[in-house]
Amino acid sequence: MALGNDEEKVRLLQADAERGEARAQRHLANRYLRGKGLPADPSLAAFWMERAARQGLAPAQRSFGEFLEQGVGLDPDPEGARTWYAAASEQGDPVARRHLQRLEQSDP
């Protein structure tokens, strides 16, 4: 019964994400990242996280920056990560601000 319930949650989440709802896109990305209710797929996780980030959702911007910095589902891109951390930081995301400061301090 729990499996069917999770399948329904995933189906509804997928529908909301495809309609362009940023929060649903972020949650779907996290499910793909962790393999929760779906097969783990880092590339699809990155795809959906980027879509949410481009809509201005600060937690998604930070997470997509982390994906870029660590190369989760795509090639590592430290400069791209810096851009997304800055966007999330401007919206008051404290974790993104710390990531951005760490990257700036590591620059020679």
TrEMBL record:
SMART domains: SEL1. Keywords: Repeat. InterPro entries: Chitin_Synth_Reg (IPR051726), Sel1-like (IPR006597), TPR-like_helical_dom_sf (IPR011990). The keyword Transcription does not apply. SUPFAM superfamilies: HCP-like. It holds the Pfam family Sel1. Gene3D superfamilies: Tetratricopeptide repeat domain (1.25.40.10). The keyword Repeat applies. This is Tetratricopeptide repeat protein. It comes from Thiohalorhabdus methylotrophus.
